[in-house]
From TrEMBL:
PROSITE patterns in alphabetical order: ACETATE_KINASE_1, ACETATE_KINASE_2
Superkingdom of origin organism: Bacteria
Protein name listed in UniProt: Acetate kinase
Record-marked site positions (Transition state stabilizer): 183, 244
Needed cofactors: Mg(2+); Mn(2+)
Protein's GO biological process: acetate metabolic process; acetyl-CoA biosynthetic process
Organism: Sediminitomix flava
Metal-binding keyword on record: yes
Binding annotation for Mg(2+): 7, 387
Assigned protein family: Belongs to the acetokinase family.
Subunit structure: Homodimer.
Keyword field: ATP-binding, Cytoplasm, Kinase, Magnesium, Metal-binding, Nucleotide-binding, Transferase
Length: 400
């Protein structure tokens, strides 16, 4: 069974194709700069252990043109992995927001598309692009099942006291203002992998997953289900991130508006794209941050302290929410690769019996790794995330 996974953005399309017999990646790529004067496609195939790469530049006015070229590459006589689009059994779509309508992977129908469109106000930057990818793929891969995998679905198991805000009831009932969370596909994948790796039964398990990339979020996972997560109504809440502020006193927004005469869109842009690590240091890439710290820059040192302190605070609150913890799991680009961040997060948690093996933490090895000290009462793991594979698995399970 061949499954194509699509992550459709406003001006880009990321994709991977899997042969689910062995869960092999056959091809992956990205279509970029859609709608601009010149777009590009970077496409890789993996055949018999050999990687081949193709890069093309040409005008890509819309998603249909971009995906049509992807099909040409997938069926190319020399580097193709299928002979025609009908060989694709399913297309798994990453959909950022499903509101309260979807708590599991869903076969896409016109009614489902309508619900995705209905919750666009909850994810105005993402859902329109996700929906566009669905519409184009439905036309191009007409024989395939179209499957929606929602970023918010894993968090729909949160109890009301975790997802509700202390604001007037009608704002929730009439306008669905509540915490939804994001990165659910990643949190689900790594928490399940952790249970499997540690041979822990779901029942009674307590895991904290720490997804650190340019976007950052954490989840408290009990009995294999999410009971709390750091992102909220939007991806802006929670941890400090590459360009997002994370948690902030709402009165700051009123101050910016009233005292500095900033408009709503300016404040939105400031908090989402000009804040976080970028706002404090001028850099959003943690490798640049590390270089500045090593050069003795005090401001950058403070910024990373703020970054790791926020994570540590959430760990403490989630230990309380879970009434203990079996494992703390780091994942995503920063979580998997930044040794200093992991060390600073775990430092000072020994009162909870959480201790790090600094030597093991400093090593770079592939796959799942344990990095806790021998006398640690809690496992500390690095679990590489694979959201595309998780989407493919969920699509396969659904159509089966």
């Amino acid at each position: 069974m061949k499954i194509l996974v699509i992550n459709s953005g406003s001006s880009s399309i990321k994709y991977q194709m899997f042969d689910m017999n062995g869960e092999l990646v056959l091809t992956s790529g990205i279509v970029e700069r859609i709608g601009l004067e010149v777009g590009n496609i970077s496409h890789k195939t993996f055949i018999n252990g050999e990687e081949k790469k193709v890069v093309k530049e040409f005008p890509i006015p819309n998603h249909k043109v971009g995906l049509s070229e992807v099909v040409n590459l997938l069926t190319d006589a020399e580097i193709g992995v299928i002979q025609n689009p009908d060989e694709v059994s399913a297309v798994g779509h990453r959909v950022v927001h499903g509101g309260e309508y979807f708590n599991e992977t869903t076969l896409i129908t016109p009614e489902v598309e309508a619900k995705i469109e209905e919750v666009i106000p909850l994810a105005p930057l993402h859902n329109p692009a996700n929906l566009e990818g669905i519409k184009v793929c439905t036309e191009i891969f007409s024989s395939a099942k179209q499957v929606a995998v929602f970023d918010t679905a894993f968090h729909q198991t949160m109890p009301a006291h975790a997802y509700r805000y202390a604001i007037p009831e009608e704002l929730y009932k009439e306008h669905h203002v509540r915490s939804y969370g994001m990165h659910g596909t990643s949190h689900k994948y790594v928490s399940a992998k952790t249970l499997e790796y540690l041979n822990l039964p779901k029942e009674g398990s307590k895991i904290i997953t720490v997804h650190l990339g340019n976007g950052c979020s954490m989840s408290a996972v009990k009995d294999g289900k999410c009971i709390d997560t750091s992102m909220g109504f939007s991806p802006l809440a929670g941890l400090m991130m590459g360009t997002r502020s994370g948690d902030i006193d709402p009165a700051v927004i009123f101050f910016l508006e009233e005292k500095l005469n900033m408009k709503t869109d300016e404040i939105y842009n400031l908090l989402n794209k000009k804040s976080g690590m970028l706002g404090l240091t001028g850099f959003s890439d943690m490798r640049d941050v590390e270089d500045k710290i090593n050069a003795g820059d005090a401001q950058t040192r403070m910024a990373r302290d703020l970054y790791t302190y926020r994570i540590k605070k959430y760990i403490g609150s989630y230990i309380a929410a879970l009434n203990g913890v079996d494992a703390i799991v780091f994942t995503a680009g920063v979580g998997e690769n930044d040794t200093a961040v992991r060390e600073e997060v775990i430092e000072g948690l020994d009162f909870c019996g959480i201790k790090l093996n600094k030597e093991e933490n400093s090593l770079r090895k592939p796959g799942i790794r344990e990095i806790q000290a021998e006398d640690s009462n809690v496992k500390v793991l690095i679990v590489p995330t694979n959201e595309e594979l998780e989407i493919a698995r969920q699509a396969q399970d659904l159509i089966k």
